[in-house]
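Submission sheet (multi-component)
Chains listed below:
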Amino acid sequence: MKRKITLKQIARELDVSISTVSKALRNSAEISEDTKQKVQAFAKLYNYKPNNIALSLKNRKTNTIGIIIPEIVHHFFSKVISGVETVANKRGYNVIIGLSNESFSKEVINMEMLANGSIDGFILSISKETLQLQDYHHFNETMSQGMPIVMFDRVVPDINCDKIIVDDFNGAKKAVAKLIKNGCETIAILTTKDYVSVGKLRTQGYLEALQENDITPEANLILKLDDTLDYEVHLDALETEIEQLFKLNPSVDGVFAVNELYALTAMKVARKLGLEIPKDIQVIGFTDGVLSKHATPSLTTVSQHAQQMGEKAAHLLIDKLESENEDEEEVYQTLVIETELIERESTK
Amino acid sequence: MKRKITLKQIARELDVSISTVSKALRNSAEISEDTKQKVQAFAKLYNYKPNNIALSLKNRKTNTIGIIIPEIVHHFFSKVISGVETVANKRGYNVIIGLSNESFSKEVINMEMLANGSIDGFILSISKETLQLQDYHHFNETMSQGMPIVMFDRVVPDINCDKIIVDDFNGAKKAVAKLIKNGCETIAILTTKDYVSVGKLRTQGYLEALQENDITPEANLILKLDDTLDYEVHLDALETEIEQLFKLNPSVDGVFAVNELYALTAMKVARKLGLEIPKDIQVIGFTDGVLSKHATPSLTTVSQHAQQMGEKAAHLLIDKLESENEDEEEVYQTLVIETELIERESTK
DNA sequence: GGATGTCACGAAAACGTTTTCGTGTTAAAA
DNA sequence: TTTTAACACGAAAACGTTTTCGTGACATCC
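Outcome: structure written.
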């Protein structure tokens, strides 16, 4: 149960000063070869490694980035983390996570905890509650203290910072266009309430695709679901709503859903109503997660390249951290990640 | 772009000493009411928060726990993290993650990075490569430096530390017993190679259940799959192997799979061969993830209570960190999490 | 022999805290 | 008046580094 060895201890053992030890280990020219050898051998023997905390304090740099997300048990978010982690590690950074659980106060508390010196910068996706309240003071305060933020996926125009977003609009548009090209004439959309920016954009993409193909959108084909309800718990409610949509609109032969779960549920309901997929009805989802891949029939979906988002976010943040042009005025960029339509069995 | 304010700055502004400021903020009796008020008001105005790094250095305690897992894009692991995070946050700790990607060297490097002062203790699950190599020096070294480790799920008896494990043996046994009770007479198992401890235990549970019901196990009903292959990529290979099993053993009317994916693939193959689930063949999986829940038919499965595992692991670690009975000799415990059979549509 | 330079090392400050131990001032007790 | 005690505060050390600057011992040069 020996504690980790420190410079001070090495110095005492070898009867030199702390400075000498430090310099010897960093191969300074100031130190004689003899002493260097001696110190380095000793350090190796006792497996000396500099204490990160002390370094952080000294350098005022922790080499750690904080990531705040609404939820981790979620394919998209965990994939983003994976991307962040890969890049961060490669560039010598650690990753510390905070979960907001879609709650405003947890988001604030978590950010405050981390902002007090624990990390150098944030990568985050805004919680639903924060989006509803539209209270963004914590982001601005953090940034005004010189801590950079990179937002991804769920972003808002009100805040001035680097952003990485998915091209939700065009992703949705491409998906719906595909349905049309495949012969669908009555296409429904399963989406979320408008305050979720991504839901809104995907809905717009849907409308645009219809318009470009001279199809008049119908209000009763647009189902805006309340996603503050926990999916997993209110699955029945979801099914009921979708079933009603199908029953009221028997001519529906195409469905575009803004997430995997809505899409899978739609397929389930369709099958229950005796419809065959993709013969009678074709379905496209959003987010390329495990569900899409392993569903039967497997789901055609819009991939957001979550891993790539994480990687780019990490690069963006670290670049900013390491440029440190305190003088040069801040210039923020918004990177758009293109989506990709992955065709599987749920479309013709 | 004002930096975070420090004690020193407050002291200078108010023309008192740093000690006075520190004491005033902590409401020390040494300081007069007047001064306290003044200092506290000023601190509040400038939103003073003590610097975590400085505190960590001073207290030799970071209030951060490190978690090393093989993969994060995985329902089980992300659920465990979620559990850890919940408890950690509640008890005033942060969580920092490291991914080993099932690689020995990444596991070692990640642990070394974190062990140098960044965290107070580890929660981890061993990577497959480490299990194969059976090289556990990094765990022992870390512990010998006084940094506690709590292992979960993938553990080895060779290492002396706190452990949280799933009752894989009994979970599997219960599942297979259920199949037998439901009338299955020829039950196949889809499992992994034996070096994965959990795969081995589940296989043993399967055998035990058969034995207790006087069924003689047959070697060709036991399919040990190579899980070093990436599931997602080698899906075809998986299907082929399972298909062969079914074809060679047409009497199979029950399948126990040691994970979700094997189970789903089995269902897919069965359907392809014209078998109805659960009428002709019943299937039970392991791990209660999204796939089981949303598959059609939904999958009966053995739930491991991943969230609970994370929570218990966090409690165990933090308890140890906060007891600090340096003197009292170490006593390690192994907690067993009971499994639960969640019945859905894939069984009668 | 004195000035200068090189070499090898140590002292000390700094990062931002907390805490122990003084210490000067004032009021109360003797 | 002198002693004592309470009060309110400051100095300094400590956590473990890195780095700047200073310095003593020698060797070199004119």
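Remark: DSSP finds 14 helices and twelve strands in chain B.
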